[in-house]
Amino acid sequence: MTLINTLFPLGWQHYLLGGLTIGAGVALLYLFNGWVGGMSSVFSSSWSFVSKRAFFQQARFVSTRNWRLVYALGVVLGALVWRFTLAGGEAQHTSVPAWQLLVGGFLVGYGARLGNGCTSGHGICGLGSLQLPSLGAVLTFMATAFMTANLMAIFTKGLA
Amino acid sequence: MNPLNPHTLSLPKALVTLVAGALFGFGLSLATMVQPDVVLSFLRFQDWGLMLVMGGAAGLAMLAYKGFPRWFSRPLLGGQFLTQPASWNRQTVIGSAIFGVGWGVSGVCPGPAIAALGTGNTDILWALGGIVLGALAHGLTARD
Q1: Binary contact (B86, A137; C-beta < 8 A)
Q2: What string of pLDDT tens digits covers the 144 residues of chain B?
Q3: What ipTM does the predicted assembly reach?
Q4: Residue B1 pLDDT
Q5: Are B56 and A18 within 8 A, CB to CB?
Q6: B23: distance to nearest CA of chain A, Å?
């Protein structure tokens, strides 16, 4: 039991249950519609509504932009339901400073689109369909994320 | 609306997409992946929960992607079971490396950034704005 407490100081059940719920959403989208539901594509496909640039006007974005937007709307709704059922309606907050969120977000958006996938696209859908390139992508972003998060912890400790 | 386009969004398909997204968003929230502090504690080796989240989700996804095309000739609402082949090249490596740096700085990735609109975590709007701009910067500089 102590090993479990060390690995998961906040408990483990909600992690597994949450992961299975995410997987159920991905599976449902595939069973009924036949679509692969990674998350980061919506950030490119939605730009095709406003930018006439050839990159954004590719068929893979234009033909999927409607359902990707509906899918993202569903994510918002699901989070809203969680907030008002299990979280008591309180709005959430984070201690991560705004500049880290903005700069980190920019790199996340740029990198996920350049690498054609994020934690859900490569991590859940790519690994789920047993694709070696996705395994390579996951190992790559895990490695740089581990390094960055630990370096950030060392550098910002003096400021806190 | 072209009926031959497998991505055509009929009303039933739109409803399924909405429910699928809602399960995704509810699961992310339940697993506390919408809290950057929890994600960063995983990246700092203090809590291994994220492995359970990704393992549980990828495990079910694997059953779906391998099983459904075998058990059904087509998706229940028509169309075809699509695949999204990933390729291994310089862009995948460099893009994933940059993505990881951003993830390690912010503790936010695309799904949780969208879910933050539902959890009411307005702080994360900074990250959502960053992702929107980052995707734009990529599209404007991409050689296609």
Answers
A1: yes
A2: 455 688 999 999 999 999 999 999 999 999 999 999 999 999 999 999 999 999 999 999 999 999 999 999 999 999 999 999 999 999 999 999 999 999 999 999 999 999 999 999 999 999 999 999 999 999 999 976
A3: 0.96
A4: 47
A5: yes
A6: 5
pTM metric for this prediction: 0.95
> Which of A107, A122, A146 has the most B C-beta neighbours within 10 Å, making it the best mutation to test the interface with B?
A107
- Report chain B residues whose CB lies below 8 A from the CB of A84: none
Query: How confident is the model over A124-140, as pLDDT tens digits?
Result: 999 999 999 999 999 99
User: With an 8 Å Cβ cutoff, is A4 touching chain B?
Assistant: no
- pLDDT higher at B4 or A84: A84
For B8, name the nearest residue in chain A, comparing CA atoms only.
Answer: A63
Of B5, B21, B99, the CB nearest to A112: B99
Return left, alpha or beta for A58; rule: phi > 0 is left, psi -120 to 50 is alpha, else beta. beta
- Could you tell me how far CA B62 lies from the centroid of its own chain? 15
Q: How is chain A classified by DSSP, letter by letter?
A: -HHHHHH-TT-SHHHHHHHHHHHHHHHHHHHHH-----STHHHHHGGGGT---TTTTSHHHHTTHHHHHHHHHHHHHHHHHHHHHTSTTPPP---S-HHHHHHHHHHHHHHHHHTT--TTIIIIIIHHTT-HHHHHHHHHHHHHHHHHHHHHHHHHHTT-
**pLDDT attached to residue A38:** 93
A119 to B105: CB separation less than 8 angstroms, yes or no: no
* Cα B79–chain centre separation: 22
| Domain spans in chain B, listed from the N-terminal domain onward | 11-141
Domain ranges of chain A: 1-34, 36-93, 94-155
